[in-house]
Amino acid sequence: MEQTKKNLLILHFTVLIWGFTGVLGKVISIDAVPLVWYRVLIATSTLLAWFLITKKNIKISKKQFLQFFFTGAIVAIHWIFFFHAIKVSTVSVTLVCLSSFTLFTAILEPLIKKQPIQMGDILIGLIIILGIYMIFKFEGQYTLGIIFGLLAAVASSLFSTINSTLVQKSEPSIIGFYELVGGLFWITLYRLYDGSLINSSFNLNINDWIYIGILGTLCTSVAYVAGVSVMRTLSAFRVALVTNLEPVYGILLAFIFFKDREQMTAGFYVGAAIILSAIFLYPIYKKRKNKL
């Protein structure tokens, strides 16, 4: 029981850290693509160091490597869309739009796994669409941010659905490491193509280096390992409920750090409340459905 309470506390702290990534994305001065490149580079290096210290065997088959490697491209795209949405709008708008992950998962998972779409999933999806419509209607000046936030949610639901099948045969930390390796490769390739890597001087200001260091270590590699470890004693239902607090924590942190810059219209909060209500209802609905 004590271990369960400890892991629940660790999970809440991990989700709080995930919510903090939005704040870091706003204060780091560089664009989304180089930001994600630095994040993945630091996270990959940190995880590799952790594997070497713990002497963990990370050997996998060629087929597994290719699966993880190409899934890493989707992870990278998700992060680029996410941080670009923050750059062109606000942390609050981006995090609420990212919450539509539940809607896209309800659509993509049955298609990828060749399963029928459930009517309950469609209902939850319609509620989320209503919330998104409200945000579009009242926060039109952030249209570009809303679009990129939704694209980030699509990418997130896609790689999460893929990972839900991959995790049946491989350890999550191994999957995460090779996906980061894949993400680093694809972003590096893109940056070589557009010349941004060659022309980069790497002369970031001291604050950017500090924030990127926190983003790559604490908010990525450490949070990932911590998030995986607690799943040994906590049910998937409890993990899902706590994870749904990410936009709530993120929006609260954004208010603390940015105050008036994160102030939205009443219509935004109505839309956000509709979306958050739907994503909290979703795991409850799934749990009851599975008992039938």
From TrEMBL:
Ranges that cross the membrane: 35-53, 65-86, 92-112, 119-136, 142-162, 174-193, 209-227, 239-258, 264-285
Entry keyword set: Membrane, Transmembrane, Transmembrane helix
Entry's Pfam families?
A: EamA
Enumerate the spans annotated as EamA domain.
9-136, 144-281
User: Which superkingdom?
Assistant: Bacteria
Annotated Gene Ontology cellular components are: membrane
- Give a yes or no for keyword Iron-sulfur in this entry: no
For this entry, the protein name equals: Permease
Which species is listed as the source? Pedobacter psychrotolerans
